[in-house]
Design goal:
The structure is a single chain. The protein starts with 15 loop residues before the first strand and ends in a 10-residue tail after the last strand. A hairpin with a 2-residue loop joins β13 and β14. It is α/β, with parallel strands linked by helices. The N terminus is likely disordered. Helix content is 23%, strand content 31%. The chain has six helices and 14 strands. The protein is globular. A seven-stranded mixed sheet has the order 2-3-1-4-7-6-5. Strands 9-10-11-8-12-14-13 form a seven-stranded mixed sheet. The relative contact order is 0.20.
């Protein structure tokens, strides 16, 4: 359903995983209905903790990774301001690495980005950075889980625990939901630069410099996915443009396209949901088709 490129190699040397993409939607009920029905997935978690920011949310699994949707429940929120400015669309890029605390120290020491939120649990840490000055128009978050006897390889284990799904005690429940939807894989995303900014490779270099993510040419190379940048055209606003999902099995792939078509969501080679273009590809193809 888009231009062809090679599927990211899970055994790559990258120490970064694209673990979660967060979207913002005005009508969260409609967003949930669309995403769960079209993708054939289900809600894995609703986080009551986001209420402190005047938000409600839900997460759905794409295999061991996640799509989150948030929506404001009160005025004067970051999410609400984004909705007023851009409408439904991208909100956050949430990455996983081996030691987010160490990266935070390096980033702050060099003045590369401003930390706006940090939260630590016994087994994890999440760090959010202010998007101002960071190309792509989205809030970056870099998290990590500690290596433990029960979680010896949190970065590379496909269905490893993830703090955004609640406490570790609930892992047996939500891991079974992740595995139930192992036919889906998050493999790509595209961010649009601000109007007038044409340097897509410079954007990738900036993210590499700030967060340490390696590059594959002009793309950021995660263990599971690639993230790239495109130029703005005709004054288009910066932010998340597209998400690419690999689908195991022709029946599953065809089912997504059929459900999207019945809902009137299909466009020219992509599906429109929550203000984002969704590309789907058969994971069994020698070259995975992504919009990268």
């Amino acid at each position: 359903m888009s231009g062809a490129t090679r599927r990211p190699d899970p055994s790559s040397s990258s120490q970064y995983r694209l673990r979660q993409l967060a979207l913002v939607a005005q009508d969260i009920s409609e967003a949930e209905k669309l995403l769960t029905s079209v993708l054939g997935t289900e809600v894995v978690y609703r986080d009551p903790r986001v209420g402190i920011w005047g938000l409600q949310n839900f997460l759905i699994p794409t295999g061991g990774d996640f799509i989150e949707v948030v929506s404001p429940t009160q005025p004067n929120t970051t999410a609400g301001r984004l909705l007023s400015k851009r409408g439904d669309g991208g909100y956050m890029v949430i990455m996983q690495t081996t030691n987010a605390a160490k990266q935070k120290e390096r980033i702050e020491a060099k003045g590369l980005a401003k930390v706006i939120y940090t939260h630590e649990e016994d087994d994890s840490i999440c760090v959010q950075y202010h998007p101002k000055g960071i190309k792509g128009g989205i809030i970056p978050e870099l998290d990590s889980h500690k290596e433990t006897a029960s979680n010896p390889s949190p970065l590379r284990t496909p269905f490893s625990p993830w703090h955004a799904c609640g406490s570790l005690s609930t892992y047996p429940t939500y891991s079974s939901i992740m595995k139930r939807h192992s036919d889906l894989s998050l493999v790509g995303a595209i961010l649009r630069l601000a109007p007038g900014d044409t340097e897509t490779e410079a954007a990738s270099r900036q993210w590499e410099q700030i967060f340490g993510i390696p590059r594959s040419r002009d793309l950021l190379a995660f263990t599971n996915a690639r993230l790239g940048f495109i130029r703005s055209q005709d004054g288009e606003q910066e932010g998340l443009v597209s998400i690419t999902i690999a689908v195991e099995g022709k029946a599953n792939f065809d089912g997504i396209l059929e459900r999207a078509s019945k809902a009137g969501l299909c466009a020219d080679g992509w599906i429109n949901m929550c203000g984002v273009r969704w590309y789907f590809a058969d994971a069994g193809e020698p070259k995975l088709k992504e919009n990268l």
